[in-house]
Amino acid sequence: MNEKPSIAVVILTYNESIHLPRALEHVRGFASEIIVIDSFSTDDTVEIATAAGAQVFQHPFQCQAKQFEWALRNAPITADWVMRLDADEIIEPDLAEEIATRLPKLPVDVTGINLNRKTIFQGKFIRYGGRYPLILLRIWRRGKARIEDRWMDEHMYLTEGRTVTFRGGFADHDLHDLTFFTAKHNGYASREALDVLNQRTGLFEPQMAITTEKTAKQAKIKRFLKESVYNRLPFEISAFLFFLYRYVVQLGFLDGRRGLVYHVLQGFWYRFLVGAKVRELEAAVKSVSTDEEKRAAVSRLVRQRLP
Description:
Elements: E1 7-13, H1 20-27, E2 33-38, H2 45-51, E3 55-58, H3 64-74, E4 81-86, E5 89-91, H4 93-102, E6 110-121, E7 124-126, E8 134-141, E9 145-147, E10 156-158, E11 162-173, H5 178-201, H6 217-228, H7 235-249, H8 256-286, H9 291-302
Parallel strand pairs: 1-2, 1-4, 2-3, 6-11
Antiparallel strand pairs: 4-8, 5-11, 6-7, 6-8, 9-10
Helix pairs in contact: 5-8, 7-8, 8-9
């Protein structure tokens, strides 16, 4: 790892002082550029990023997809490769070495790299319930990938070329408490409910979906099942069946007590909350007549600035 590969790591932040030093430390060995797109943090996130030598830009946040698309269009990225990294994610040493050694040697037709992400919840590696590995396209040749235009659960996809998978350690390890976890997922549920509402009503502009094979197939299959099967069932039934599938069929019970908390919250409570919010949004939309009134009603309920 004496010579760094040409790779820019792009991190979106808002009040990430608890996570950002760790994330920066774990990419320092291989990143030739580090770019932080901050949503006007009120803590010392910007100072931490600047002190670490990152290029920092600030832009108002609407959703992850639009914020990252803004980064791709406006950040002065010159590296040959780009990595998308969340502030609470960790590139472990074996993956850092794999990136440093393999990246410069890849053939030109390889334009994307999938990573196998694991989830760490309250210090516990969640191995079961379909949570590992989560295969995500996170590294690509500059200009060869785009991000889906969605409110939630957005993925990167390639515009050309093929992918390979790096096997090194890549972890989502949030250090916050359960109060933060549930508040964050409440916000996620509102944004995912917007996607479901838009799928059913076309209230907003059509959003870009995964329509190409040039991305992680796991993500594409999950999206198809969610939109074509899961979202068509009453949420009172689908949320419960989904939890049973994850906890029993996919062996989530083997994750122990902390795993039980995680699977109940993320695999049942969250899914139930999304369904309840979709029903609330649909009722609000039916109570008014014009599209402008519908968008205003939806915006009030989700507390989200809408286009």
